Known about the structure:
The structure holds two protein chains of two kinds.
Chain A: E1 9-13, H1 15-21, E2 25-28, H2 37-45, H3 49-54, E3 62-65, E4 68-70, E5 81-85
Parallel strand pairs in A: 1-5
Antiparallel strand pairs in A: 1-2, 3-4, 3-5
Chain B: E1 2-7, H1 13-21, E2 29-36, E3 46-53, H2 55-72, E4 75-83, E5 85-87, E6 92-100, H3 103-120, E7 123-129, E8 134-136, H4 141-148
Helix pairs in contact in B: 2-3, 3-4
Amino acid sequence: MVVDQRAPLKVLWFAWLRERTGTAEELVTPPAEVATVGALIDWLSSRSPRHAAAFQNRRAVRCAVNQELADPATPIHPGDEVAFFPPVTGG
Amino acid sequence: MATVRVQAADFHVGAEFAALTAGRSDIGGIGCFVGTVRASPGGPRLEALTLEHYPAMTERALAGVVAEAERRWPLLGCTVVHRVGRMAPGENIVLVLAASAHRAAALEATAFLIDWLKTKAPFWKRESFVDGSATWVDARETDDAAAARWGSPPAA
């Protein structure tokens, strides 16, 4: 599959992470070396105090890449949908 | 075959039972779990619970949990309905039905489905109280322990 290297990432925020960042969804284009979820968290945290606040306690943050549960080592690619949320509390 | 739905509207347990069993004579037992909105004792009085979810992921995550139950037990049908949006104390939140030829599989699969759903499906609860305050419900370690007792799926 040919991937447009310039395609932005779609970053989604849920529950109290949405409240901390002040946004539910944003398009971002990190530099190419930001290639994992962990690196993306570092990069997003450096972009604004609100993002840094969202990731203040990283152990309290879960992630999904393209709707599949992910961890800090999970690779990310241009055009991916990356969601950040607290531990789930359904049921 | 399984029915998985996410909806704002309430569900009717009897109607879901009827839909699951219509025309069937092979089912010998159906396990049922209904989760409802509970006010915690003490503290401010609960006004409502609001369930947020991640629509693009939710039904897929629920389908994955159902597929794992179908892999582990000889199910003859199952139904998972999860509500989203605002609910008052006492209202239904989630329904799990699991049908099998015998009770052990039906009951175990029902418990598995709700335990795994609680830790793997992207829903978040927010409690709002009559005094105007509101808080996101924290995940419980007891829920993780309940899910962990079923072990993990085999590596792909």
